[in-house]
UniProtKB/TrEMBL annotation:
Domain Major facilitator superfamily (MFS) profile: 26-415
GO CC annotations, alphabetized: plasma membrane
Gene Ontology MF terms in the entry: transmembrane transporter activity
Protein name: Major facilitator superfamily (MFS) profile domain-containing protein
Coiled-coil ranges per UniProt: none
Record membrane topology: Multi-pass membrane protein
Keywords assigned: Membrane, Transmembrane, Transmembrane helix
Broad class of where this protein is predominantly found: membrane
Residues annotated as transmembrane: 25-49, 61-82, 102-133, 153-175, 181-200, 234-253, 273-292, 301-319, 325-352, 364-384, 390-408
PANTHER family assigned: MAJOR FACILITATOR SUPERFAMILY (MFS) PROFILE DOMAIN-CONTAINING PROTEIN (PTHR23528:SF1), PTHR23528
Amino acid sequence: MALSSPGTGLPLTVATPSPPLTRGLLPLLLLGNTAMYALYIGVPGVLLALQIEHIDAAHKVADFGLVSGVSAIFATVFNPVAGALSDRSGRRNPWILGGGLLALPAMFLLGTVHTILLITVVWCLGQAVLNVYQAALTSVVPDRVPLAARGRASAAVGLGLPFGSTVGALLGAAFSDRYRTGYLVFGALVAAAAVIFTAATREERRPPRAPLPLARQLAAFTGALRDHDFRWAFIGRALLVLGYFAVAGYQLYILQDHTRLPAGLAPEHAVAILMPVNALAMVVSTVLGGWLSDRHDRRKLFVGASAALSAAALVIPAVSASWSAMIVFSVVNGLGFGCYMAVDTALVTLVLPQAEDAARDMGVLNIANAGPQIVAPFAASLIVSVSGGYTALFLAGAALSVLGALAVRPIRSVR
């Protein structure tokens, strides 16, 4: 469901002319991200949760936390590494195509395993190839989009989340009784998007960069976080993502064990209702947030306000376990998170340290996406187990979102 020179605290983005916006690039970015988020939402949010419950229903919360947390480690490692490799090669399209095509065999393998251990191993493999795809796709915006259009481009990327969430939830519900086939469908969706994107977009090949010694590569990764603005953008993203995924990752189990559903409504079908509601709210806030942030040249205001709105949303199911409360939560959370992801992505591209290291540094920032997903399942499992329910989990997520809203205030180079 996706970012500074060491020591100075000032952005040192290389002054290169902004590229013209390639015709058709924004719809293709929407397509590529929609397919990716459909898999990210539909597989762990529905199919993987059902597969784990089928294998070990008594320990499903702990098992799901283990699988999600361990696999997120692979996401954290592979995203910046893949970004650095595409930087070095001077190309993005081959990495998008390779990662997308490999999603299909990875999903096929996931449907063939029957133990928690093997699910963990194969889903780790799936996370690895998907983050190769994601790292290169994310870097297309700073590579090929002029500064004046970053908000619109980020909105196109951000719209991939609500559209992908809807597709993922609907497909997940449709294949809830045939999860092996569902895995193949999701893998084929990402593979097809990769083929279409790379066939329809042309990129100017930049000169390949000489390999750096491992010590210098590690120093480069950590060096980006020494920049003042980049560091605060990283912290804000990490806090909000941690709060969001601590709750979102357990949505199916929340609907099973916390929410009072209407008679006859199965939890997996409730997911398929909530996701389009959430997606519609995300679409509205993503488009408006991206457009308004461009128009007024104000990124921090929109990022902070939307993070605060996400916090307010998480309080709603904490005070009411009704089905109506979950619907309201989905609307408000969609408004907040959609605007946040659209505008924060634009903000991040404006505090990148150096243009030639865009993919690497976007990969470093993506640790703020993947890293909290390592912590979130374990933390959520612990909170639910200790508190005996999900109310404390909602409140913890709200507190983290408030901190994420406050984290953008120290950023100096962006309004």
